[in-house]
Amino acid sequence: MEAKKTTKRAKKFTKTIELLDILENDARREVKDLAEMLEENEADIASQLTELEKQKVICGYHTLINWEKTSSERVTALIQVSVTPQRGKGFDKIAERIYRFDEVRSVYLMSGGYDFTVIVEGSTMKEVAMFVAKRLAPLDSVTSTATHLILKRYKDYGTVLEPDEKGGRMAVTL
Prior knowledge:
By secondary structure, the protein is of the alpha+beta class.
């Protein structure tokens, strides 16, 4: 009996991972389509999605936009941040202070030569620079920052933004 429960849990886990993989690549899939793809009924898929949202496994649904194709001016910067962890709180409280800023799009704890990677968006380079100089760098635990402007995105979240329409190989010159 226990072996059947274990097998059933393993199958459910596998289906959940399949569901998450599908949604990660196309969040616009309808419940009907998801049910067909996973050979499940719609009510079960809808229930599972609700549960995954409650558990914060699914944290949101996003649209990837190629802003270079619009008239909107955007500056995106990747900022390497070194900090002194707070006693008893580690990196989490510092990360929370950083991610609460409206300009911040992402915060990642890193291994290596610095502690956090912070992705920031602004309307101008000056706006991004002023955010770093007046809001991020002065935080108590921040010991240093290094700002890198993203000049062009070729691929983002697994999506190629401007695929090679020619389909040919790149020329090689010596």
